Amino acid sequence: QVQVVESGGGLVQPGGSLRLSCVVSGSIFKLMLMAWYRQSPGNQRELVATITGGGITKYADFVKGRFTISRDNAKNTMFLQMNSLKPEDTAVYYCNANLGETSWGKGTLVTVSS
């Protein structure tokens, strides 16, 4: 069973930045399609960004130009650099690891508020 652990959430003012991290156990991280999702109260979980093992990225329209997904295969770690944060970015952010089977972390809360 793959273990997925997110970190880096917190409270930030509008316009600020945060960097989320996701560490995945095991030796097959480099093969995994990785993704960040988020879920705000009363809403369904939504896809934020994905990154392949080779570094090809895709973004939801609502984060394009503000968020950057990246990964370090040598450290089994994925990142989400979030800039120009808005109150509507407030959510629990989840890391998803996929290689046939899907594994989720428990999430990290991001709150954007003045």
Can you describe this structure?
The chain is mainly beta. The protein is 0% helix and 53% strand. The chain contains no helices and 11 strands. It has strands at 4-7, 10-12, 18-24, 33-39, 46-51, 57-59, 67-72, 77-82, 91-99, 101-104, 108-112. Strands 2, 4, 5, 6, 9, 10 and 11 form a 7-stranded mixed beta sheet that branches. A 4-stranded antiparallel beta sheet has the order 1-3-8-7, with no helix packed on it. The radius of gyration is 13 Å and the shape is globular. The protein starts with a strand and ends with a strand.
Strands, helices and their partners?
Elements: E1 4-7, E2 10-12, E3 18-24, E4 33-39, E5 46-51, E6 57-59, E7 67-72, E8 77-82, E9 91-99, E10 101-104, E11 108-112
Parallel strand pairs: 2-11
Antiparallel strand pairs: 1-3, 3-8, 4-5, 4-9, 5-6, 7-8, 9-10, 9-11
Helix content: under 10%
The SSE order reads EEEEEEEEEEE
Mean pLDDT reading: 96
Q: Count of helical segments?
A: 0
Terminal CA distance reads 40 Å
Approximate strand percentage: over 45%
Uncertain runs are none
Q: Decide which structural class fits the backbone.
A: mainly beta
Summarize the main sheet: 7 strands, mixed
Radius of gyration: 13 Å
Estimate the global geometry from the Cα principal axes: globular
- The tally of strands reads 11
Quaternary = single chain
